[in-house]
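seq/struct pair 1
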Amino acid sequence: MLINSIKSVKTASREIQSTSTQKPLRTCLPEEQFLLARDHEIQERHRYRGFELSFLPLNPAISQLMAMLGLECEQRLASLAQTAEHLQLGVGLEKCEVHGVIPPDMRRQHFFVVNEDMAYQALNHALAAAYHSHQFHELLVKTCSTLELHVLLKEFVTQKKNACHILEEVQDSLRQLAG
């Protein structure tokens, strides 16, 4: 029994040493962080606009919610541009579109939600994307080295978390209506 305890202590010690030697998260330059945040918000805006159109025939209320989430993306883009200008970063944030052609992963085939099953699936997709966006912004906050951007990104994390909660509530209400 004592030997097993010693082995487990040695194993735990090795695990601690291996985790302490892992490389820390890479800190990006402020310009890189602004560009990452900008491009991500543009993708989110396109996604929410697509969902807005998709839900329009079956559920105008969810369509309107998606439109509001898209407007929040536009407000975040404006905040990013304003902060970048304040910091005198020449990263081109005043332009709210991705340079060049929209990548294939940003383009989505538009479809209309025509029944409750499709609505639930589309809402699952929107919720998964919202979770991903929340995690992305949390990672940006962890790697942020600029105070002004850190404060702004913390606000974004809070907004993304709230969007997740709202979409969860809508999903729950759809589930209750169907069940």
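seq/struct pair 2
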Amino acid sequence: MTIGEVSTMVQVIEFFNFKLVNTPFRAVKMTAFATSQHDVPLSGFKECEGTFPNKLTFYDYSPNPAISGQPVTHKTHATDNVAIKNGSKLRIQAHFNNRLIEDRVTDFCKDWNSGGKCSGATGNVQYEKTEILKDLSKIKDLPRNQSLDFNLRIELHTPQNGILCCIEGPFHLIIPS
């Protein structure tokens, strides 16, 4: 293959939103990344048992696996049948081997919306947030330097504490030594 053919192939691959990664064997590996909410709807997560007025249609995070104490970006798409109002809370529970590692509640409108206010609108919405993950290296009995599967439960609550939507599933995390 000539350099011109490789250049053309790279342009085509980049057009289709593929990422090129060099492996130790100098081969080219192509990994497709989702470009719409229909490609990787919930990345292994599923809706919690029950009936909720709002539906999360897409959830993904990167990097995957995430690294304890480092930034991670969460992306969500949802269909909001009930407006998310100021004062709504996001609750995230993380379990490892059935042991509660974290139970955190934050103000959704302040943390996930630019300007710190929820619009109160309904319909299809998208949110993205980058945060620094809690450093779990202080928990001595958690394994190090390997991808661990945490069970994450993510709930969005109204100011009156009703649950608007809920998903749960595996969150892959590495805790460095």
